[in-house]
Amino acid sequence: MKISENLNRIIMAAYAEANVRRHEFITPEHLLYACLFFDEGKEIIVHCGGDPARLKKVIEKHLDLADTATATLTRAAQSIGFQSVLERAAWHTSSAQKETLELGDMLVSILEERESHASFFLQREGINRMVLLNYISHGISVIAGNTDGQRTSPGTREGETVREDKEEQNKFLRAFTTELTARAKAGEMDPLIGRQEILERTIQVLCRRFKNNPIHVGEPGVGKTAITEGLAQLIAQGRAPKKLRDVKIYSLDMGAVIAGTRFRGDFEERMKRVLAELQKQEKAILFIDEIHNIVGAGAVSGGSMRC
Amino acid sequence: MADVPQDLPEGDVKNDQEIREPKMYRVILHNDDYSTMDFVIEVLISIFHKPAADATRIMLDVHKKGKGICGVYTYDIAATRVARVHQLAKKREFPLKCSLEEA
Question: What is the DSSP letter of A69?
Answer without folding.
Answer: B
